[in-house]
Design goal:
Layout: H1 9-12, E1 14-21, H2 27-37, H3 46-58, H4 62-67, E2 75-80, E3 83-88, H5 97-104, E4 109-115, H6 122-133, E5 138-143, H7 152-163, E6 166-169, E7 171-174, E8 182-185, E9 190-193, E10 204-207, H8 215-219, H9 222-238, H10 244-248, E11 252-257, H11 266-276, E12 285-286, E13 298-306, E14 315-323, E15 325-327, E16 331-334, E17 339-342, E18 347-350, E19 353-356, E20 359-361, E21 365-370, E22 379-381, E23 387-388, E24 392-394, E25 398-404, H12 410-423, E26 427-431, E27 437-441, H13 445-458, E28 462-466, E29 471-476, H14 479-488, E30 493-495, E31 501-505, H15 508-517, E32 522-524, E33 526-528
The structure holds guanosine-5',3'-tetraphosphate.
The site of guanosine-5',3'-tetraphosphate has 17 residues, from helix 2.
């Protein structure tokens, strides 16, 4: 972070982030309130309503509706004061960790939402670990303070111990559960009172002058005030002070307390993200890293979504701009194929609706409709052969054989499966021997999602059957060694959707054996997407 030139103002005002949380902690509600304060929606409730409408419109995923889970990630942009926020939505269900992982490669910060009564839950911990791999700055929102919640020190301790990160209170709750009246804003010496009567009302803010200010006693009942004074004194003595540099390097998280449902504490969190959240960051790439202030445009695909509109077989590639100032109509080089693409109809995901993006800056997410040329991990530049790195593809943990209900439709099935593979929704392996395709996913629910999408989007009923294999590993090594290995293990060999060689097995023992018998071969559980 040191000695970096100041970014052009249009880039410096961007904050690109994701929300990580355990299901039910309040991510959807918080997103809704972000959009409300961002002026993107007029009334809270529209995020959900809009989700419903879109699903019916495109018939997209009956499953998503049935199960009430969000299967597809999307991006939303909105302004907050002089800032432009880009919120990249992470799928909430634990079955979609790979998609989530890739989403987190496209953001500069994460907001971690925890439920004040439940503390750090399993999914939060997993997502947090992913953020930590990239040292992402994390801002914490402790939600549902309007209900019975844990003791404030307990919550802070739990985060510190469970996640091994310093926690600094940005606000301090006054009262618990039904007695919760609001928070003291530690950073700005203000009292924020919650309005229980109107859930969408921005809380009153009362500027005070230190903890001895008599105004406190006018607004806070005496018993709560005494307890609050004790607590805040203890907090000041025991907990670290906010250090912006430690927030930026991911070693400290500021925590705000609030109630998303009551629109309380949300604005302070957004102010925090604006003030302490990072500007667009340098992107790792080969042969050199990309800095946001560079004049030429560079961007990378972190998500592909097919069939957003089933009437047109279009796909939208979600591109994070890593540098420069993009303008509609620009010709960019697709580095993998070395071909030029004129980007004539890019989409900006303004919260209210999709809109044509006339321009975008480093930090923004744009959608590029295409017919399959753009894949996850692809880099777009103004000519330089740069490849953004760090977008992994994981070995699937579950494998099943997929067959078309009508055997005459095998070719159609292959096409459909390849499309989902490119979208990153599954791995598809074509075994050297035998018929059918082996489909690999990270979570079991994805088989059902795929079956229902293939039927909905391609009119093809399919069956998933258990496969004789349970693990897949990519095979690496020099050509002679790989050829010899493939020849001797034909029953176990398949190619993935990119044509790369894969070793399929059901035993860890087999994987160990390869390690012993073929020292020139490496079997890997991840492959970098390119
Ligand atoms: P998620 O996206 O993280 O899964 O959570 P979501 O926002 O859907 O919230 C989960 C539940 O928690 C919802 O209740 C929501 O209303 C509630 N909730 C969110 N924020 C608060 C808060 O600050 N205080 C309280 N008391 N509850 C909150 P639900 O009954 O599942 O749905 P709904 O019928 O209220 O929509």
């Amino acid at each position: 972070m040191t000695n970096r030139p100041a970014l052009p103002p249009e880039i410096a005002r961007r904050r690109t982030f994701a929300i990580i949380s355990h299901p039910d902690a309040g991510k959807t509600t918080l997103t809704e309130k972000f959009l409300l304060y961002g002026g993107a929606i007029q009334m809270a409730g529209q995020v959900r309503a809009k989700g419903e409408a879109r699903r019916t419109r495109s018939d997209f995923m009956q499953m998503e509706k049935d199960r009430g889970i969000s299967v597809s990630a999307s991006a939303m942009s909105f302004d907050f004061g002089k800032y432009r926020f880009n919120l990249v939505d992470t799928p909430g269900h634990s079955d979609f960790s790979e998609d989530t992982y890739r989403t987190l490669t496209a953001v500069d910060a994460a907001v971690m939402v925890i439920d004040g009564a439940k503390g750090v839950e399993s999914q939060t911990r997993k997502l947090f670990e992913v953020c930590r791999l990239r040292d992402l700055p994390i801002l914490t929102f402790c939600n549902k303070m309007d209900r019975e919640s844990r003791d404030t020190f307990d919550i802070i301790d739990e985060i510190q111990e469970n996640l091994a990160i310093d926690v600094t209170p940005a606000s301090w709750p006054i009262g618990v559960g039904r007695d919760f009246i609001g928070c003291y804003d530690i950073l700005r010496d203000r009292l924020e009172l919650m309005d229980r009567a109107d859930r969408n009302k921005v809380a009153d803010s009362i500027q005070i002058n230190g903890l001895d200010d008599p105004k406190l006693a006018q607004h806070v009942p005496a018993d709560l005030l005494a307890k609050f004074r004790d607590e805040i004194e203890m907090a000041k003595a025991l907990l670290p002070k906010l250090d912006p540099a430690s927030v930026l390097n991911g070693s400290m998280t500021p925590i705000w307390f609030g109630s998303a449902m009551n629109s309380f504490g949300v604005k302070e969190l957004m102010d925090g993200l604006a003030t302490y959240g990072p500007e667009p960051q340098i992107q790792s790439a080969q042969p050199r890293n990309v800095a946001p202030e560079e004049i030429p445009v560079t961007g990378f695909v972190f998500k592909v979504q097919a069939n957003m509109d089933p009437k047109h077989r279009d796909r939208v590639a979600f591109v994070r701009l890593a540098s420069g100032h993009f303008e509609r109509g620009m010709k960019l080089t697709h580095v993998r194929s070395k071909k030029q693409m004129a980007i004539t109809n890019p989409v900006l995901f303004l919260a209210a609706d999709r809109e044509l993006a006339e321009e975008a800056w480093a930090g923004d997410i744009i959608g590029i409709p295409n017919h399959g040329q753009l894949r996850i991990g692809d880099t777009l530049t103004e000519g330089e052969a740069i490849r953004v790195t760090g977008i992994p593809s994981f070995a699937p943990e579950l494998l099943q054989t997929c067959r078309a209900g009508d055997p005459m439709k095998a070719k159609h099935l292959e096409k459909a499966l390849m499309q989902f593979a490119e979208e990153g929704a599954a791995k598809v392996f074509k075994p050297t021997f035998g018929s059918g395709f082996i489909v690999g996913v990270v979570g079991a629910l994805q088989f059902e999602v795929l079956a229902s999408r293939i039927e909905l989007e391609y009119g093809l009923p399919v069956r998933f059957e258990s496969s004789q294999f349970t693990s897949a590993r990519w095979v690496a090594g020099d050509k002679i060694a790989v050829d010899a290995f493939v020849a001797a293990n034909k029953q176990h060999i398949a190619t993935d959707n990119d044509g790369d060689t894969v070793f399929l097995t059901r035993l860890q023992w087999d994987i160990d054996r390869v390690g012993r018998d073929y020292p020139a071969i490496t079997l890997t559980a991840t492959k970098e997407m390119m």
